[in-house]
């Protein structure tokens, strides 16, 4: 008897390359924990920027775009790993991991810088309600840059928190990229 002919489609595509475990075991790795932190802190950046009344839409629009997009893509990546779908998609997941985390690192660093610029643009402006009065006084120091915003203390505090969490997310994406690069090279 002759052997059956092999299917050329089955032999022409390589198996998916993935060096992370699938299922819930991925959450026990440093990379899985970092992706969870990226999702958690990225969601916080998204919530904080949205709750700050967006004093500079041009700058904070980019921060919102980056935080929402990265939140969705990181969640999708984690869902692929936890559900095991990554094993069914034929691609080099290590290269995809490094590429995604590199792009997210660049975008989130830019978002962090823009959020810090928005926060720093407050320029020493303070809105104070006079005691025993319904009048409001605004004290403005000399603006330090081209952008000048007037935020009350709550908005300023929310923007400071968003800046700090954007920096933390940037560090998480950087660590994920380095760890992905090490997995890719090994």
Structure description:
A hairpin with a 6-residue loop joins β1 and β2. The chain is elongated, with a radius of gyration of 23 Å. Helices cover 62% and strands 4% of the residues. With 186 residues, it is mainly α. The longest helix has 33 residues, at 153-185. The protein has five helices and two strands; from the N terminus they run ααααββα. The protein has helices at residues 8-12, 30-51, 57-83, 93-120, 153-185; strands at 126-129, 136-139. A two-stranded antiparallel sheet has the order 1-2. α2 (30-51) packs antiparallel against α3 and α2 packs antiparallel against α5.
Using brief descriptors, characterize the structure shown.
elongated, mainly alpha, 186 residues, 2 strands
Query: Major β-sheet, in short?
Result: 2 strands, antiparallel
Strand-residue proportion: under 5%
Low-confidence stretches: none
- Measured as a percent range, the helix fraction is 55-70%
Order of helices and strands: HHHHEEH
Number of strands: 2
Strand order of the largest sheet: 1-2
Principal-axes geometry comes out as elongated
DSSP helical segment count: 5
CA radius of gyration is 23 Å
- What is the mean pLDDT? 81
The rounded distance between the terminal residues' Cα atoms is 43 Å
Structural class: mainly alpha
Question: Quick summary of this structure?
Answer:
With 186 residues, this protein is mainly α. It contains five helices and two strands.
């Amino acid at each position: 008897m002759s052997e059956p002919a092999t299917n050329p489609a089955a032999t022409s595509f390589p198996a998916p390359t993935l060096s992370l475990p699938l299922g819930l075991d991925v959450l026990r790795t440093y990379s899985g924990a970092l992706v969870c932190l990226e999702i958690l802190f990225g969601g916080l950046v998204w919530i904080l920027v949205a709750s700050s009344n967006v004093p500079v839409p041009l700058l904070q629009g980019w921060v919102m775009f980056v935080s929402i997009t990265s939140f969705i893509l990181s969640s999708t990546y984690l869902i692929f790993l936890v559900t095991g779908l990554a094993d069914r998609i034929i691609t080099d997941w290590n290269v995809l991991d490094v590429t995604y985390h590199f792009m997210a690192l660049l975008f989130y660093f830019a978002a962090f810088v823009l959020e810090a610029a928005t926060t720093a643009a407050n320029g020493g402006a303070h809105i104070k309600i006079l005691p025993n009065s319904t009048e409001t006084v605004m004290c403005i120091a000399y603006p330090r840059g081209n952008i000048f915003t007037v935020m009350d203390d709550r908005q300023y505090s929310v923007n400071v928190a968003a800046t700090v969490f954007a920096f933390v997310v940037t560090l998480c994406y950087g660590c994920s990229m380095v760890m992905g690069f090490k997995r890719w090279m090994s």
